[in-house]
Amino acid sequence: MVGKWHEGFFDPAYLPVNRGFDTSSGFLGGGENHMNEKVGCATDFWKNEAPDTRNGTYDAYIYQHDLTEILNDANPNEPFFLYLPLHNVHTPLQAPDEWLNKYDVNSTCTQRRTYQAMVS
Prior knowledge:
The protein is 24% helix and 12% strand. The protein has helices at residues 59-73, 97-100, 110-119, and strands at residues 2-4, 25-27, 38-39, 42-43, 46-47, 50-51. The longest helix has 15 residues, at 59-73. The two termini are 21 Å apart.
């Protein structure tokens, strides 16, 4: 499982790795900052059952790394299931400059450019 998890986390039994997934990385709550993985004053970014120390990197880049690792490690002769609930279309609207710079600024809707970069 890579991405957002909105299926409970008040007890370790509800974490993805305790609900049938071999691995997990991502958010347990909602509304996290894409750039530093914070919501309010707390960091909400997890790898399996512990906080993920890779926070501070745009979350889509971390997802890409984890997905590549999972796919490279998968046995092509065994059944495979990957749950990928992406967080990149949720607020706050944020994207790295390398993606923002691909789109012109639209004076009638300032958020459109950021949203375009987020879904690229």
